[in-house]
Amino acid sequence: MYCQYINGRLEEGKGPLLQVTNPADGSLVAEYRAASPEQVGEALEAAQAAFASWSKASCDERAAMVLRMRDGMLARRDELTEVLIKESGKPYDQAFYDVNAGIQRFTFMAEELRRIYGVTLPDYGSHTGGAYHFVEKRPVGVVVGHVAWNFPMLNISCKIAPTIASGCTGVVKPSRETPLTAMILGEIAADAGLPAGILNIVTGTSRDLGPCLNSSAIPRMITLIGSTKSGLEVMQQGATSIKKYSLELGGNAPVIILPDADIEEAADLAVAKKTTNAGQVCVCYNRFYVHESVADAFVEAVKKNLPDVVLTTEKKPGRYIMGPLIKRSAREHIQEIIKEACEQGATLVCGGEIPEDMPAEGNWFTPALLTGVTDDMRISREELFAPVIAVQTWNDLDDVIRRSNDTDCGLTSYVFGHDSRALARLSEELESGEVYINNAPNGVNLPHGGIKQSGLGCDNSYFSLEEYYDNKRISLIP
Questions:
Q1: Does 253-443 match 4-249+453-476 at the fold level?
Q2: Distance spanning both ends of the chain, measured CA to CA
Q3: What span, in angstroms and rounded, lies between the C-alpha atoms of 460 and 446?
Q4: For 460, which of 82, 107, 355, 395 is 20 to 30 Å away at the CA?
Q5: How far apart are CA 21 and CA 26, in angstroms?
Q6: Domain extents for the chain?
Q7: How far is the C-alpha of 107 from the C-alpha of 291, rounded, in Å?
């Protein structure tokens, strides 16, 4: 039985009965009772009560608890992976990555919490030793976390690990689409012996539970991984009291391919990125701007790679392994966007079909390649969250920079090429929180966050952990 985790106890929800279905075949994975608004209130009050003692716990105590969670996840890694496959439709390797990435966040934060330092500042008007000023870090308080469905373990770990590590306490709500692995985390927390109240996990719909969590005056910080629309709703609901926000929101990532780029590599990565998690990734390539001198070669290279995509949720060999979209409405939405683009002059080169050899009850969709796309089409204006490679061309660097920045979003940008002058300009002038050049690697120690309407603050790294603290200045005359 899947339970809520509230004030150190596993208990059945008192809200409506909800179902989780498998995106691959439509089968029922599990039923569970959602948390009620009253249980959400209990979780918030438990977190508030626990903060008084947990905020004063030593670094060693906090690190030990974070590592207990990590060890519990390691012990149940295979189970977490299997459940994640069923609730999200991820292929095995991608689900295994998701779980391991979550585990890695706990390991990192257990180490990084020891590197939060205060500072001593001089007094400009006093002689040496006449006055002292200290600035120290103090845990913010109760943190409410909302996490998206596309990376259930990675996303929730990005919230739980720094909350516990910093000395804060929290209430976390996973997505309605993928709650089961989060509920297993509640079991892991109970088995790990976390002090009651420092972590609470409540599940249900955002419509029912979101306002209860956000409008409460108990949270001092709300953190979210989700859409820009969700971020605005959270801030509006949270305006009942002064709160901090850390929001990782929607993206519309441009991919600029320079004339001297390695076209085969760029085409390989285009297919690999757009089929990983079926393109349902906030930092996924969204708008492909390919220099006109290499556009035909890029399209042909992508077209050559697409037949190698294997549709499955199983553990199979292959460079491109892709599962289904998360739900039927997501598939219908991307079909509508592709149809609209073609009516406006784009060409569907290949893909964009419902495969006949996959379960009809699932949300399967073949990756699509389009050319002749323009910036005014919806396919360029919206975050696609789907396996669609939408190609347009450019021939002037100033113009492609302007077009790339012509969006409210500012999460991630990508560049392929080796012209140092062009790379310098692009890295400086692209308006996004992250710029990846030639598939540069990522890591848990690197901050992940956007600007503009793509968010506030960041996940991962020292910079994320720092957000869970307030600065406290102490000034004294000895």
A1: no
A2: 60
A3: 6
A4: 82
A5: 6
A6: 4-249+453-476, 253-443
A7: 42
Q: Which one, of 209, 230, 225, lies nearest residue 13 by Cα?
A: 209
pLDDT tens per residue across all 478 residues of the chain: 899 999 999 999 999 999 999 999 999 999 999 999 999 999 999 999 999 999 999 999 999 999 999 999 999 999 999 999 999 999 999 999 999 999 999 999 999 999 999 999 999 999 999 999 999 999 999 999 999 999 999 999 999 999 999 999 999 999 999 999 999 999 999 999 999 999 999 999 999 999 999 999 999 999 999 999 999 999 999 999 999 999 999 999 999 999 999 999 999 999 999 999 999 999 999 999 999 999 999 999 999 999 999 999 999 999 999 999 999 999 999 999 999 999 999 999 999 999 999 999 999 999 999 999 999 999 999 999 999 999 999 999 999 999 999 999 999 999 999 999 999 999 999 999 999 999 999 999 999 999 999 999 999 999 999 999 999 999 999 9
Backbone φ, ψ for residue 185 (5° rounding): -60, -35
Q: Do the Cβ atoms of 229 and 249 come closer than 8 Å?
A: no
Which regions of 314-465 does DSSP assign to beta strands (E)? 321-322, 347-350, 368-371, 388-394, 412-416, 434-437, 455-456
CA angle 425, 428, 431 (to 5 degrees): 115
Pick the CATH number of 4-249+453-476 from 3.30.460.10, 3.10.50.40, 3.40.50.2000, 3.40.605.10: 3.40.605.10
pTM of the model: 0.96
Catalytic residue among 248, 383, 434, 467: 248
CATH topology assigned to domain 253-443: Aldehyde Dehydrogenase; Chain A, domain 2 (3.40.309)
Q: SS3 of 160, please?
A: helix
Q: Which residue has the tokens 């939408």?
A: 390
At 387, which amino acid appears?
A: P
C-alpha torsion sign, points 329, 333, 336, 342: negative
* CA nearest neighbour of 36 among 19, 17, 20: 17
Of the candidates 3, 282, 284, 458, the residue annotated as catalytic is 282
List C-alpha distances in Å: 406 to 34, 230, 317. 41, 22, 39
Q: What is the DSSP string of 16-75?
A: -EEEEE-TTT--EEEEEEPPPHHHHHHHHHHHHHHHHHHTT--HHHHHHHHHHHHHHHHH
Question: Is 38 noted as a catalytic residue in this protein?
Answer: no
Q: Is 282 one of the annotated active-site residues of the chain?
A: yes
